[in-house]
Amino acid sequence: MEIRSMQAQDWVKVSEIYAEGIATGFATFETTVPPYETWDKAHLKSCRLVAIDDPHVLGWAALSPVSSRCVYGGVAEISVYVSKNHRGRGVGKALLETLIALSEKEGFWTLQSGVFPENQGSIALHYKMGFRHIGKRERIGKLDGVWKDNLLFERRSTTVGID
Question: What is the DSSP string of 44-68?
Answer without folding.
Answer: -TTSEEEEEETTEEEEEEEEEES-S
